[in-house]
Amino acid sequence: MLDQLLNGEKATGRARGFEALDGAGSWGSVLNVDDAGVTVLVNGIDYGPVALVPAGREPSRDDEVFLVLDSGGQPAYAIDPPAVGGVASLEAEHLVGAAGEPAFMNGWSNLGSGFAAAQFYKDPSSVVHVEGVITGGTIGSVPAFTLPAGYRPSASIVRVVSSNGADGAVVVNSSGHVMPTNGSNAIFSLGFSFRV
Questions:
Q1: pLDDT on residue 30
Q2: Which of 89, 119, 141 is a domain's end point?
């Protein structure tokens, strides 16, 4: 579905000057709005209904919205740019290892080679998204990096992720430690989210 939706190209909200809440999605026009959500037309295909973020303003037919995809490439929700006040009110990604951001720990680093860098952000629904592909560190109960206050779960969570072609596991505790606990350190994919 991702290739269909994006017409073979990965798109981001930044391509149109709008900081999207997720790394992949596409601009589309509103076909219908009802109690179930908004139906969006993208590349000649209609998707929805999906939730509209933020709630409150009812867009008109043909209004432009940004359709955000979840980590599985399925339509997750649509962003209504006029209702969020444009770019200024949306958070940019925090790149792990960049100046002023959390540092890598215990031998971990970005995989590189065209893969997404480790990053995180919080959407308007208070869901933290952690993405990217890392390599080289210690698998176990030690952190690859630590999420800052405001981006931490209230209790430890476990998520299944892809790790070198097999299942891996990552634990995020209430101290913000992101710990690859099971899998391969050759390729460890971060693609998970949780509510704070």
A1: 79
A2: 89
